[in-house]
Amino acid sequence: MVASLILAPSALAGFITPKSGGSSNANQIDTLYKIILYVAAFVFVVVEGALAYSVIKFRARKARVAAQIHGNTPLEIGWTVAAALVLVVLTVVTFVKLPSIINPPNSTASGPYLSASLNVPTPPNGKKLTICVQGRQFVWRYTYGAGCVNNAFSSKLPYSYQEMYAPANTTVVLAIQSTDVIHSWWVPSLGGKVDAVPGYTTYTWFKAPRAGPLYHGQCAQLCGRSHAAMTALVKILSPDEFSSWLSRQQQTIQSANKQVTQLRQILTASGNL
Ligand SMILES: [Cu+2]
CB under 8 Å to 251, separation ≥6 — which residues? Predict the structure, then answer.
């Protein structure tokens, strides 16, 4: 019963293999992982099987003297070449798969997200949405829009904390930074795990195939006492829903700022500030 549960592929999915489904790079990482896992499992079974067979079949018995064999050239060449071939195949497969993991694909959504850059990963058609991810003890902050790395405050870009909103079918490039210690951005279903390092900007991307899902993530670098509380959520919306969410968010921030300004004026006037 337990064995059949363990052997069922669905029970294994996401347990000993990477999560996937939220973005094509996550799927490619998952596929590559499985290819290597299955090849390694096959080698393990063959080697351990031969070992177990030999240990049992040729075990010490009374009044029996074991044949002393020294060296077997064909066998030794055989397992050296076989091991080398396995490595060559895995290397080739890995390098064939790598571009689809590293390079962002084209956006399919016709959003107004066009931004060019020299050092940021950019899909071939140039259409992408840039979101800055800023780690700090102990929360993630997301700033939306091109220029979020340098001009987030002067451009008054909309932002949110902890829960990121992103459009489906759009290549979303994340520029990842930290304001204090090293954090690590990791939403398993969306692919790459990337460190947020103070003083540097690192990058990853995702392209969600459909609107609706809510993906869970967790800071993957021990960053202090409340590291465990540093979770992340990514909600995928349709491009239209995303646009209206973004303008709503901008209005909410503006009116909150207005209230703070008013409160400050009242407190200053009454001598309480
Ligand atoms: Cu952290």
Answer: none
Per residue in 122-174, pLDDT tens? Answer: 787 777 889 999 999 999 999 998 888 887 777 788 999 999 999 999 999 99
> What is the three-class DSSP state of 243?
helix
Three-class secondary structure of residue 227 per DSSP: helix
Count of CB atoms within 10 A of residue 183's CB?
A: 31
Residue 188 Cα to ligand 1 midpoint, Å, equals 15
Whole-number Å distance between alpha carbons of 108 and 4: 41
Q: For residue 113, give both structure tokens.
A: 């997200």
Pairing assessment for the beta strands 159-161 and 139-144 based on DSSP bridges: antiparallel
Q: Closest by alpha carbon to 97, among 44, 26, 196?
A: 26
Tell me: cis bond preceding 138? Omega within 30 of 0 counts. Answer: yes
Distance between CA atoms of residues 237 and 23, nearest Å: 14
With residue 184 as reference, give the H or E element that holds it: strand 183-185
CA of 201 to the centre of ligand 1 (A): 16
- How far is the centre of ligand 1, averaged over its atoms, from the C-alpha of 141 (Å)? 12
Q: Classify 156 as helix, strand or coil.
A: coil
At 161 the three-state DSSP class reads strand
- Which residues are CB-neighbours of 4 under 8 A, at least 6 positions away? none
Residue 185 Cα to ligand 1 middle (Å): 8
Q: Where are the alpha helices (DSSP H) in the chain?
A: 2-7, 9-12, 24-57, 73-102, 239-269
Question: Distance between the two ends of the chain, CA-based, in angstroms?
Answer: 69
pTM (predicted TM-score): 0.80
